Amino acid sequence: MSPDRLTIVVAAYNEAEALPLLHPRISDALARVENLDARVLYVDDGSRDGTWRALQAIAADPRVSLLRLSRNFGKEAALTAGLDHVEDGAAALILDADGQDPPELIPQFVAQWRQGYDDVHGTRVERAGESWLKRATAHGFYRLIGRLSKTPIPQDTGDFRLLSPRAVAALRQLRERHRFMKGLFGWIGFKTVAIPYSRESRAAGRSKFGFWKLWNFALEGITSFSTAPLRAATYLGLATALVAFLYAVWIVLKALLWGDAVAGWPTMMAVILFLGGVQLIALGLIGEYLGRLYEESKQRPLYLVDRWQAASGVSSEPG
Ligand code: UDP
Ligand code: MG
């Protein structure tokens, strides 16, 4: 029987300290899986520290190939680049460079894949080294997007997952610029299974995702996978219009019954400001979607490759 082919895809941005700790762990984990033709593909997402140099040292391992992007395109694009360079017919396992997704679970992932699952994903049951606030907001976000989106998006699941060859091929067809990976994984469907694990804290370095970035990430997720906010704006407009109408009726009645003493400046200001605010919110919302439409319409490539270094143990070109 020919061995199953698997490529571990690791996106790294300024991870010079973490990578040398990670690779031996991957190596050990792979050694524990039988009948597997494994490769490791590191994507340097335009790092500004010694990441590329660290990767050169790691590439002494004949199974390792390296890809360097022309600049920092962000994790989602880096992962896309990685998946694009996985050989045709091989499965892919996505792993964070900082050791937060334990490589020790690789044998378990492979076992599930061999059971016939196309998307084996790690679900965090515990998150070490992350603040109460981050955990709470993350939880709230998964609940919200679960409600809003028609695409199934598993809770507390990151990019840590193994994709079967056909799932990789499917994902490659999704070329949108605003890449909310969790949603894209859900969109392709197929048979999925979750592997619970407790998320450790970073092995080295610090998180690249601050609150502002996470907030934008959440917006990305919601706007990419749901148009519910647009509909909400419509209802908000309807509700305000109704309230405004009732209030108008009341004002007219009051003037007819008790006369009009020409006061009313505060109420007028309040109504104008309120309506103005509601209109701006609705407009901003439409703008969010329109902006994304504009970005999408430009059809730019998702990333540019600066360098591709194939594994020394393989001669073939990537798929
Ligand atoms: N990453 C990347 N490009 C970026 C930001 C992050 O490739 O622009 C990688 C990073 O090197 C790491 C993974 O994405 O392997 C997750 O990043 P991080 O640990 O900072 O996120 P967190 O675990 O805090 O959500
Ligand atoms: Mg991390």
UniProtKB/TrEMBL annotation:
<keyword id="KW-0808">Transferase</keyword>
<dbReference type="InterPro" id="IPR050256">
    <property type="entry name" value="Glycosyltransferase_2"/>
</dbReference>
<keyword id="KW-1003">Cell membrane</keyword>
<keyword id="KW-0472">Membrane</keyword>
<dbReference type="GO" id="GO:0016757">
    <property type="term" value="F:glycosyltransferase activity"/>
</dbReference>
<dbReference type="InterPro" id="IPR029044">
    <property type="entry name" value="Nucleotide-diphossugar_trans"/>
</dbReference>
<feature type="transmembrane region" description="Helical">
    <location>
        <begin position="265"/>
        <end position="290"/>
    </location>
</feature>
<keyword id="KW-1133">Transmembrane helix</keyword>
<feature type="domain" description="Glycosyltransferase 2-like">
    <location>
        <begin position="7"/>
        <end position="168"/>
    </location>
</feature>
<keyword id="KW-0328">Glycosyltransferase</keyword>
<dbReference type="GO" id="GO:0005886">
    <property type="term" value="C:plasma membrane"/>
</dbReference>
<feature type="transmembrane region" description="Helical">
    <location>
        <begin position="232"/>
        <end position="253"/>
    </location>
</feature>
<feature type="compositionally biased region" description="Low complexity">
    <location>
        <begin position="312"/>
        <end position="319"/>
    </location>
</feature>
<dbReference type="InterPro" id="IPR001173">
    <property type="entry name" value="Glyco_trans_2-like"/>
</dbReference>
<comment type="similarity">
    <text>Belongs to the glycosyltransferase 2 family. GtrB subfamily.</text>
</comment>
<protein>
    <submittedName>
        <fullName>Glycosyltransferase family 2 protein</fullName>
    </submittedName>
</protein>
<dbReference type="Pfam" id="PF00535">
    <property type="entry name" value="Glycos_transf_2"/>
</dbReference>
<keyword id="KW-0812">Transmembrane</keyword>
